[in-house]
Amino acid sequence: MPKGVPNKRYTPEFKKLVVETMMKEKMSYRETARQFEISNHHRVQDWERIYLTEGPEGFAIERRGRSSKSRPPKQLPKQVEEDLLAEVQRLRAENDYLKNLQALVLEDERRQRRKRR
């Protein structure tokens, strides 16, 4: 397998083309890397993960080097944030319900014990 150029940088458009071609033609990571002369098939795998989680816009983000501590945290899309808050509320309500149910069951068991005595 031919080795690529060390520290080669790929454009966001090229990454998008690679991932979309791989998905459209149902190619493996190795086949895709070989066809586009990419040195490592794991790079294609990483690109696919970025494409599926962040969309094609994710390729424009620089990911090399250490991250800056002064950067503000990444904001979630509004819909995702609302979905997460709704799920937290649902889980809290479910948790409260289960705690109350457990308390009722324990109280019922105590009453049953008292009646037996």
Question: How would you summarize the topology of this molecule?
Answer:
Layout: H1 12-24, H2 29-35, H3 41-54, H4 78-116
Helix pairs in contact: 1-3, 2-3
| Average pLDDT score | 87
Total domains: 2
Uncertain stretches: none
Q: Largest sheet, if any?
A: none
Overall body shape: elongated
Using only C-alpha atoms, the radius of gyration works out to 26 Å
Strands, total number = 0
User: How much helix is in the residues?
Assistant: 55-70%
Multimeric state:
single chain
What proportion strand? Answer: under 5%
The assigned structural class equals mainly alpha
What is the distance, rounded to the nearest whole angstrom, between the alpha carbons of the first and last residues? 82 Å
Number of helices: 4
List SSEs in N-to-C order: HHHH
